[in-house]
Amino acid sequence: MIIWGVLGACLAVAGVVVLFAVGAGALTQAPAAHSSTGLWTRAVDKLRGTNPRTWVFLLVAVVLAGGAALWTGWPVMVVIMPVAVIGIPALLRAPPARDIELLESLDRWVRGLAATMGAGRSIADAVRASARNPPERLKDTLIRMVQRLDDRWSAPAAFLRMADELDSPDADAVLASLILATQRGGQGAVTTLAALADSIQERLKVMREIEAERAKPRYVVRQVTLITVVVLGAALVFGRDFFRPYGTPTGQAVLIALVALYAGSLLQLKRMTIPRHRARILRSQA
């Protein structure tokens, strides 16, 4: 009865957290567009920007932590359960393939420019035309690019600012070629863009192969982690005498150290699968 009472209390606390989150707009509103200086206002802005899925995981972690701590009698479960529910999935999740997404958008954009310029348009006119049906990843950047051209920016200066906004070595290579083409008056630009599109395709192929290789160890670790959690959970339920030493203060310290080591190894694995930062080749003087 005591266990059920405490579990009910945990659910009540979780309900209060949900009501506070809804009241603050964390689950129903987008992040605030303005910046604040007050500590409380910044905290509320942070809550509003929290993904609803994160709130669900947080509430599940709160309930499981309270229930596990009471059932096992291990206070350390209050720390371990949130790490298991929120931290480990985050460490095992594949990082977003932003470089591949950007390259795919650049490939589509460059091929569209080449097709438009093949009809006799200048580079600036081709860029304006491309902004009418742009790749989603480049939509806002191309709109600002056209606005600069309409404000009488030179094409090289506008391309340099676009490169700063995209902040990618791959985008720098594409925009550097366009800058050189504009400085030559557009001569040979269609041939340059066609060669550039082929180069992007080759790089995309290599990057997809690299990403597939990086995904293999993540998949293996996910399987090992799942099996470990299932086996340990079953052993904790059906063979609690085996875990009795962890109920002592020393055992609690050992348990938290083992969990920290495992989480640290997952963090190291995640860092190893993140692409290395590459230096850019274009910088505007603004």
From TrEMBL:
InterPro entries: T2SS_GspF_dom. It holds the Pfam family T2SSF. It comes from the Bacteria. The chain crosses the membrane at residues 56-88, 219-238, 250-269. Its main location: membrane. The keyword Mitochondrion does not apply. It is found in: Cell membrane. Residues 110-234 form the Type II secretion system protein GspF domain. It is a multi-pass membrane protein. GO terms for cellular component: plasma membrane. Keywords: Cell membrane, Membrane, Transmembrane, Transmembrane helix. This is Type II secretion system protein GspF domain-containing protein. It comes from Propioniciclava flava.
